[in-house]
Specification:
This protein has 509 residues and is an alpha/beta fold. The chain has helices spanning 19-37, 53-62, 66-83, 97-113, 174-183, 191-202, 231-236, 238-241, 262-276, 307-314, 316-325, 337-367, 382-387, 390-398, 402-423, 425-430, 434-458, 463-472, 484-488; strands at residues 4-7, 11-12, 42-49, 90-93, 116-126, 131-133, 159-168, 188-189, 208-209, 211-212, 220-221, 224-229, 254-258, 284-287, 290-292, 295-296, 333-335. The protein folds into 2 domains: 4-287, HUPs (Rossmann fold, 3-Layer(aba) Sandwich), CATH 3.40.50.620; 313-488, Isoleucyl-tRNA Synthetase, Domain 1 (Orthogonal Bundle), CATH 1.10.730. Strands 1, 2, 3, 4, 8, 13 and 14 form a 7-stranded parallel sheet that branches. Strands 6-5-7-9 form a 4-stranded antiparallel sheet.
Amino acid sequence: MKKFYVTTPIYYINAAPHIGHAYTTVAADVLARFYRHRGTAVHFLTGTDEHGLKIEQAAKEAGKSPQEFADAVSEKFRQLWKHLDITFDDYIRTTEPRHEDKVQEIFAALIKSGDIYKGHYSGYYCVSDETFWTEKEAPPDHKTGKRLCPNPDCHRELSLVEEDNWFFKLSKYQERLLAHYKADPDFLSPKHRGNEILSRVKEGLQDISVSRAKVKWGVPVPNDPEHTVYVWFDALLNYVSAASGCDDIWPADVHIVGKEIYWFHAAIWPAMLMAAGLPLPLKVFAHGWWTVEGQKMSKSKGNFVDPYEITREFGVDAFRFFLLREMPFGNDGDFSIKTLKIRYNADLANDLGNLVSRVENLIDANMKGALPARSNPEKDFYPKQVASRTAEYAACMERLDFSGALGVIWSVVGQLNERVNSEAPWKLFKSKDPADHEKAKTLLFDVVWCLRIIGGWIEPFMPRKMAEMQARLGVRQYPDALSAEDVLQGKEKGIGKIQKGPPLFPRKT
């Protein structure tokens, strides 16, 4: 059976990783973990994009060769993914032979088919974005008369480039792309971003230059060593080169990308696949950007958020949780320490953490950590009502609505808190009536069982903390967490009693 194939973009190594890279990669990791819990075989790919003029220049400024520079920065990404508990199955670098060989193979095949041809290019190029722009796309600035990069986060002056290049017949695939978008409306996701792609393709497509004559740091064009493959054409093929020889992977089930590179993935990439005779991915999903305290992240402002700094204060799991809880995946959002602290204290320290502590303390003090046996489970078993919301949670996860899935979970957490508050088991244990004691025990057992299920739901987002929580609830030994389905099936591995411990999420002041 085919594996569930999920990818991040491969990250350009002109700078060290920041919150934007972490956001995309954590989202892909959460999705991969969710499908693994369901028993699905998963293949999760990430990596780094290491060719192009921009890397040549950055390496020169750093006093290194391009390969030395690439090795150093790519390793920074690897180390951050290890720190953030990213469970990728493959990490590809575009400087690897397996990738470069596949790029040359496909480039040669498209030359042979006529989809790539030699021609003269005259146009404008942004070194910073490694992007070509037409005269129409980049008209002269009304103040300076200079042509500036249309990317609102760049606006650097463009270079006029004139050279004989190899071109890809993108125009040939306009109607096929439109037909595909119509036949598969979920291919472009979310819809509000897909509509932007649809409108742009309808305006008309032009053939694009896919080689450079003056850039040496890249994949040589087959039989034309004076040219290297344009960095974007090269980079997009990583998804194919990483899957070579793995018949159970292709095509990708979902490519997760940032909105700034959506055009390349949603129009140029499927056209390349059509030309190569390869099946298209099932979905290309573009998420939004993070601003920082209302401002766009930029080097000049010095406001890039370093994940290491945030996790030192709040922990890795809380950072992962916040990224996908705070805003709907696909929209833009704003990051601030204040907002993170508010979310952390409200959702984690108060709602979930405090509930776990109350239950642990009550069982420890009144039941010596033991759990009561379940009686008549098929009759009226409260945790079954909670478990019935698994379908709602799973539907959110399948459509990459991560904040929606967490919303479902926290509505259940809220209901459990309300039930504990209304039934007040601490009062029942003080009663002289044995029936009240049994009522308190039943309530606590229900809450423990529900928390075990909740732990399975949350585990893709917070793997360390949920494994710890389930272990303390007597169902599993750290570090492995049970999925909600495992819990419902009665799987257990542990000592079968409550293990009282310090707060899962110590409150931040």
